[in-house]
Amino acid sequence: MFIKEVVPSFVKNSRGEKSVQIEVVTYEGRFKCSAPSGKSTGKAEVVSYHEKGIGHSMKMLKAFCPKLKHENFIIKKVDDLKAMTNLMRKFEVKLGKFGGNVNYAMEGAFLRAAAADNGKELWKFINDDVNDGLRPKMPMPVGNCIGGGLHSKTIKGKKPDFQEFLLIPKEKTFSRAVTVNLRGYDYARKLLKKRQEHWTVKRSDEGPWMTSLTNEDVLGIMKDVAKKYKLRIGLDIAASSFYGGGYYRYKNKELIRDKVDQADYIERLVKKFGIFYVEDGMHENDFGGFKEVLNNVSKKTLIVGDDLTTTNLKRVRRAVEGKTINAMIIKPNQIGSILEVKKVVELCKRNDVKMIFSHRSGETMDDILADYCVGFGGQFIKCGIFGRERLIKLKRIMDIERTLLRS
Ligand code: 2PG
Ligand code: MG
Question: Strands across the sheet with 18-26, in order?
């Protein structure tokens, strides 16, 4: 793959923040990728940009990218990307790190160019490598319906403490699942309007409805939505965001729970509302707490690590070998290396841990997450229900599904 040039630039994400985009130009065409950014980030995540900020990462890119001009890379599989990433690591030795988001954009653009060079779509390029080309199964979407926590603003001083109330369909096709999620999302709006005085339509980060209701009142709505459209309920509790000094500090309603109470509370909610999926129910270093919850809920419930595992092989190994989770979030920019993502995927597969490929709260118009999810064999894709940055990823999987159904 002969590189004509590599061009870095800034783009804006859905929160209006600056992000980095990389464009790789080869004889096959121009291949772009831009990086998303998180807000409720895990402490074990790699830094997103150079310690001096995104501006400094861009300065480094402006010096580094011209060095790739006229290079010839032979990339036949994901691991071959090393030839390029090694150059990045070498460049960092004296200047400090580019950051996980820069790696995300650079690797994504290179992989897209490499896939085209091999005459393949990106999902197929990855699938041929990691799944021996076996026909992939379509994932199910995990969609953010009602929001709270760090991603949401308060209404009259209130919001739910949990970050995300999720809808998860179980349908034969991905496109049907997307439709059902949209219907459920709209029905939730109607119920919010009914059950809350003076409610006006407002959306928080990622597009879910904003509300001042408590966790349990929202779960009541979710239960009705789920029943009407045969959907499953999920939660991203993002517990680290309201944990401090050994306690979970709830604001709505005001309450303090210790570790034992917190695990107990989650277990009760799971039973009461028939919850299928619980992400980050305990704080990010409480491996034991996750295990406790996993042991006390039905085997069908997914106990999901995100801030706990941060797509970091060491942490994932600890979580999986300690039997603390049965599912995990995969966010490539948490670890800043798609080669590491591949190792995490292999570990999950060996241990039957379900994989949820996930967007970040600040997303761009890039849809590479969809190719990663199908290519690596994720069972779920978490990328919202509404908003153009979210819909573009759902649409990409619908397109892949259509191609596969035709073949
Ligand atoms: C999460 C994500 C995405 P953020 O916690 O799962 O929903 O949020 O990107 O802010 O880390
Ligand atoms: Mg999360």
Answer: 3-12, 18-26, 29-34
Give the strands of the sheet with 243-244, arranged side by side. 243-244, 247-251, 254-257
The reply to whether 235 and 346 lie within a common domain is: yes
> Is 255 a member of any domain?
yes
Q: What are the tokens at 163?
A: 């970050």
Examine residue 131 and state whether it is found in any structural domain, yes or no: no
Whether 270 and 400 share a structural domain: yes
Three-state DSSP at 120 gives: coil
Neighbours of ion ligand 2 (CB under 5 A): 236, 279, 306
Using most ligand atoms within 8 A of CB, pick from 15, 356, 358, 382 the residue to mutate for ligand 1: 358
Specify the amino acid at residue 40.
Answer: S
Quote the ligand 2 centre to 104 CA distance (angstroms). 19
pTM of the shown model: 0.98
CB 117 within 8 A of CB 28: yes
Tens-digit pLDDT profile for residues 121-146: 999 999 999 999 999 999 999 999 99
- Where do we find the tokens 């480094």? 60
- Kindly state if the Cβ of 358 falls inside 6 Å of ligand 1: yes
Report helix angle 174-195 to 215-229, nearest 10: 130
In a domain, 132, yes or no: no
**Ligand 1 contact, 306 CB (< 6 A):** yes
pLDDT tens profile 229-286: 999 999 999 999 999 999 999 999 999 999 999 999 999 999 999 999 999 999 999 9
Q: What residue numbers bound the domain in which 279 lies? A: 140-406
